[in-house]
């Protein structure tokens, strides 16, 4: 992404809690036999993981990471690409928090659209020069034999160039394929599409895979989105628009001469 999915902490004061010691008088009891050196139940604790966290602590940590991911995800969808780029350059650790949450989310999907795009390029376009917009960890570049230019908001990988995907450092008409896989995040997706048109060679292909909810409901709608693509200089045939499943849809379109 710009990927795109893609915040600072709030200070909070914690009130100190004072516990009162309550002394009970008990009748003396006979000493209990030793328990083979084992700790009594009231002093034992849950086993810690290799990270040093108990299972309960791990659960809370995972919930906190999920909450951070959702906050950053919302910020990415409601910001312009240039603003998201500037924010991540100031706090690149937020990018890793986002992508850790994204990878966790992907692990629950029955299908990842990127797998289909990797197969499509590997089998049908092995010699194409590709631009992967909002590339995340650059798995596409690592999975195909092609020359792949990988762009995202932060570069934590030698394959990735950090930039705003509305302004990538490529010459006009220099690539055969542009890929947006779950990367049309931000309020200015029209700028991303225009940039794709600029860098594509004549009759080059733009492949978009997105979450349906990004366009359904209160979104711009898939029909309006495809109409915009046509106005932006792409040809789209009815069979080029496909539903991967209930979660995702794909659009494959070709740059026109106009």
Written account of the structure:
It is a single chain. The protein has helices at 55-77, 81-90, 93-106, 113-124, 139-143, 189-199, 222-231, and strands at residues 129-133, 147-152, 160-162, 175-181, 200-211, 234-235, 241-243, 248-255. With 258 residues, the protein is α/β, with parallel strands linked by helices. Strands 1, 2, 3, 4, 5, 6, 7 and 8 form an eight-stranded mixed β-sheet that branches. The chain is 33% helix and 18% strand.
CATH topology of the largest domain: Rossmann fold
Q: State the fourth-level CATH superfamily of the largest domain.
A: Vaccinia Virus protein VP39
**Percent of residues in β-strands:** 15-25%
Number of strands: 8
What is the count of structural domains? 2
Please report the first level of CATH classification, the CATH class of the largest domain.
Answer: Alpha Beta
Helical/strand content category: alpha/beta
Look at the structure and give the mean pLDDT: 76
Topology of helices and strands:
Blueprint (H helix, E strand, L loop, with lengths): L54 H23 L3 H10 L2 H14 L6 H12 L4 E5 L5 H5 L3 E6 L7 E3 L12 E7 L7 H11 E12 L10 H10 L2 E2 L5 E3 L4 E8 L3
Helix pairs in contact: 1-3
């Amino acid at each position: 992404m710009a990927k795109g999915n893609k915040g600072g902490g709030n200070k909070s004061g914690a009130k100190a809690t004072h516990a009162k010691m309550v002394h009970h008088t008990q009748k003396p009891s006979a000493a209990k036999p030793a328990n083979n050196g084992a700790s009594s139940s009231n002093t034992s604790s849950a086993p810690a993981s290799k990270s040093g966290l108990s299972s309960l602590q791990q659960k809370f940590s995972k919930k906190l990471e999920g909450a951070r991911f959702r906050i950053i995800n919302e910020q990415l969808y409601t910001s312009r690409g240039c603003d998201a780029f500037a924010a991540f350059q100031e706090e690149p650790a937020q990018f890793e928090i986002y992508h850790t949450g994204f990878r966790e989310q992907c692990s629950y999907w029955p299908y990842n659209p990127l797998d289909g795009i990797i197969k499509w390029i590997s089998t049908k376009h092995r010699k194409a020069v590709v631009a992967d917009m909002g590339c995340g960890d650059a798995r596409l570049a690592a999975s195909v034999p092609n020359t792949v230019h990988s762009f995202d908001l932060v570069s934590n990988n030698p394959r990735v160039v950090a930039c705003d995907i509305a302004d990538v450092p490529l010459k006009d008409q220099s690539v055969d394929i542009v890929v947006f896989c779950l990367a049309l995040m931000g309020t200015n997706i029209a700028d991303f599409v225009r940039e794709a048109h600029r860098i594509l060679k004549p009759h080059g292909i733009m492949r978009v895979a997105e979450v349906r909810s990004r366009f359904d409901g209160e979104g711009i709608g898939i029909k309006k989105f495809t109409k915009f693509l046509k106005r932006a200089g792409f040809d789209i045939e009815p069979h080029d628009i496909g539903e991967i499943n209930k979660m995702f849809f794909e659009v494959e379109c070709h740059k026109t001469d106009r």
